[in-house]
Design a protein that fits this description.
Elements (H helix, E strand, L loop, with lengths): L1 E4 L2 E3 L13 E10 L1 H8 L9 E2 L3 E9 L1 H7 L6 E4 L9 H4 L31 E4 L5 E3 L6 H4 L2 H14 L8 E4 L3 H12 L5 E5 L4 H9 L4 E4 L5 H8 L5 E6 L4 H10 E9 L11 H6 L3 E4 L7 H10 L1 H7 L2 E4 L3 H6 L14 E4 L4
Parallel strand pairs: 9-10, 9-12, 10-11, 12-13, 13-14, 15-16
Antiparallel strand pairs: 1-2, 1-4, 3-5, 3-7, 3-16, 5-6, 6-8
Helix pairs in contact: 5-6, 5-11
Bound molecules: zinc ion (2 copies).
InterPro entries: ADH-like_C, ADH-like_N, GroES-like_sf, NAD(P)-bd_dom_sf, Zn_alcohol_dh
GO biological process, one term: small molecule metabolic process
GO molecular function: adenyl nucleotide binding; anion binding; oxidoreductase activity, acting on the CH-OH group of donors, NAD or NADP as acceptor
Length: 356
């Protein structure tokens, strides 16, 4: 399914390339509909290069590939894998230092690799996807469902924010503000890391998301639009606030709440992008010696995420509450955007081949 311009997703056929010399072909089992896909469709993100086959959270089976490429990845034809969204150049300063999510080429499957760059099949919203030899590919066990496996990089984000940035260790109190797929993935990683209490916060409109948060390991959930939410959260954390707060919600109010509930000398990991400048109480950050960290997408975190996924596959699968056929991708998107078709019960949707 090609996003040819904002608001227009169409079915286009491309030839499956010959991969005898390099690269591989993935037969798609599942591709989830990321919030980025929604903003590309709406035209509110300037990240994308159109026209593009959408889909960067993908799992599938390798059906063909060059021996050298497959050897380097340590997989073979018939193996199930999940590729990372980032396609590094492995050559720029950032890539060489392991920060390939900041690669100067900025290549992302399903987002910045347009169809006019051959072989066009750069996204997961399709039957087959081309995997460039420089892809980062992770093997997936047979017992992990496609709808869990395609979230490998989302769990990777959780690993980055909870473990690498937040340095959460057993017994730490953790709050996650924003219960979308990224916040829920962070919840699963925080539970694995031994966070207790583990509080997930969201708007009343996010009721379904908070239910999933509770099912995947939150000890408490709170509505951010109810009175005294900060006091109640601090009480749950034992009176002085949380050791670590991760903000995935793209709202200034969420940042303010996080600063209110993080404990003195705590860590605040800001992930949500506001799209504009925010005014924050900087003196509180100075006075309480709060460590404020920015967090982008995973880089080098999916290896650990695969272990989290293996141990928590059922919980990870719960994030993808709704399943649509790939050919129905536009319906899946409309059901998540404001308008007549909006369905508040959808936490995250996954696309699968064939008919549902
Ligand atoms: Zn994404
Ligand atoms: Zn690079």
């Amino acid at each position: 399914m090609v996003l040819s311009e904002p608001g227009r997703l169409e079915q286009v056929a491309f030839p499956v390339p010959d991969v005898a010399d390099e690269g591989a072909i993935l037969e798609v089992e599942a591709a989830s509909v990321c919030g980025t896909d929604l903003s590309l469709y709406k035209g509110t993100s300037n990240m994308g290069v159109l026209p593009v086959v959408l889909g960067h959270e993908v799992a599938g089976t390798i059906v063909d590939g060059a021996a050298e490429t497959l050897d380097r990845w340590g997989v073979g034809v018939g193996d199930r894998v999940s590729p990372e969204p980032y396609l590094p150049c492995n050559d720029c300063g950032d890539c060489l230092q392991g920060h390939y999510h900041m690669c100067s080429e900025g290549r992302l499957y399903g987002i910045t690799l347009p169809t006019h760059v051959k072989p066009s099949l750069w996204g997961g919203y399709g039957e087959y996807m081309y995997l460039h030899p420089k892809s980062r590919v992770h093997a997936v066990s047979d017992d992990i469902s496609p709808k869990a496996a395609c979230l490998s990089s989302v769990i990777g984000n959780g690993v980055r924010w909870i473990s690498r940035k937040g340095k959460v260790s057993p017994g730490d109190s953790v709050a996650i503000v924003g219960p979308g797929a990224q916040g829920l993935a962070s919840t699963i990683v925080a539970k694995e890391a031994g966070a207790d209490p583990l509080v997930v916060m969201g708007l009343s409109a996010d009721e379904k998301n908070l239910e999933v948060g509770e099912a995947v390991g939150a000890t408490h959930t709170l509505y951010t639009d109810e009175d005294d939410v900060a006091e109640r959260a601090i009480d749950i954390a034992g009176g002085s606030g949380f050791d670590v707060v991760v903000v995935t919600a793209p709202a200034e109010a969420a940042v303010h709440l996080a600063i209110d509930v993080v404990r003195p000398r705590g860590r605040l990991v800001q992930v949500g992008l506001l799209g504009s400048d925010a005014s924050i109480p900087l003196d509180n950050i100075v006075g309480d010696e709060i460590t404020l960290l920015g967090g982008r997408g995973q880089a080098g975190d999916v290896e650990k995420a695969m272990n989290v996924l293996e141990r928590n596959a059922d919980d990870v699968a719960r994030i993808n509450t709704h399943t649509f056929a790939i050919a129905e991708a536009e319906t899946a998107i409309h059901r998540q955007l404001p308008g007549e078709q909006f369905d508040p019960d959808i936490v995250h949707a996954v696309l699968v081949p064939g008919e549902i």
